[in-house]
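Predict structure. Chain length: 468.
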Amino acid sequence: MVDVLVIGGGNAALCAALMAREAGASVLLLEAAPREWRGGNSQHTRNLRCMHDAPQDVLVEAYPEEEYWQDLLKVTGGLTNETLARLTIRESSTCRDWMHRHGVHFQPPLSGALHVARTNAFFMGGGKALVNAYFRSAQALGVQVRYNAPVDAIELDGDRFVAAHIGHERIGARACVLASGGFESNREWLREAWGQINGEWVADNFLIRGTRFNMGVLLKYMIDAGADSIGDPSQSHCVAIDARAPLYDGGICTRVDCVSLGVVLNRDAMRFYDEGEDFWPKRYAIWGRLVAHQPGQIAYSIIDSKAIGRFMPPVFPGTKANSLGELARAAGLDESTFVKTIETYNAACRVGSFDHAVLDDCHTEGIAPAKTHWAQPIDKPPYYAYALRPGITFTYLGLKVNEQSAVHFGGKPSPNLYVAGEMMAGNVLGKGYTAGVGMAIGTAFGRIAGTQAARAAQQSKEARHAVA
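Prediction complete.
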């Protein structure tokens, strides 16, 4: 019998497996995906949000705990467990040396990266390189890995883990870490969670930015088995992405980052939210949900030539036109309404000193919704339109945990069953998102869960020897 069973193959699962192995436990990791698709959503990530009190290797200036906490508090609207959030924040300040030891490399700060050189450490080669480094390290340390191994049931004795089941196969272990993601690839569950808005099943128009393998099978199983859950099933990391993106695994390159540099219109060619509310890394993940509530779950980011070169170019070129009317026709929007909306916005702009790197004084007056920063008339052809759809990265419904990452049943922590990553991120993320915090949660609680699982396995062996 193996000491620690880890179910999942993304960042949190790998952190758990490595920590458990370093603590002396024998470890088996079960990944539902085939080897070529291993890594879950982590393969699509880029960075880790890191607390630091002074400049560090790849982080400039300082990003102290209290500022990190306030950023998290703002985007979640207070829907967060402060104890677990601060634990995540503190862990983010100490994990990079450990990550280095397991082959993860970070790139130097990028110029023009909109403040994230201060708050976020970027992985050299992105999330795919991070996942591959962890798998290499796990193999070198003797962690057993099985692919194409989707666990469909967990065998429990009360609140104690006994075994996992893959069909008719039973795999026992002394302790277990669940890290198999949320349910964002399960269209039926998304439909149930979101329901209908204005007679439309909104989830039918969602695109999935990450892995197709996160069906939420074990999350649902554990909730049905009496594990304590937390979070709203309709809340998620939900980004406005290019409407031409693939159904699954579009990843980072499908994001459209010019929202704050122009205006966003719905299918009726009307604005519906403040495009200049805050810096893009703090607010980009609200736009998917905003678009989801618009007719047909589609919107259009409209910019002019002044915006070109100021944002990360998307993988697909935008629809281009030399006049506003031509752009409206090309986008399939009502021409007169489109032109009127843009002209009304242009007339409302009060342009001061434009600076996309700060919360500048360029704003609108006399229109609703206002644009509070970076408001400039859209008046320099050619013009561009990007059609947007909601892109779900991961869902926030999860299992309730404590500082030891233990799964809870009726408020009581399990003695040998732990959870990490997206399966428990809702403890910290009740809603909203800020760049890099998902990897911070997965890294923190993956490492904690692996350590605790190894300890529980050791205690189980000692108890057996004592009885013998």
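Summary: The longest helix spans residues 437-467.
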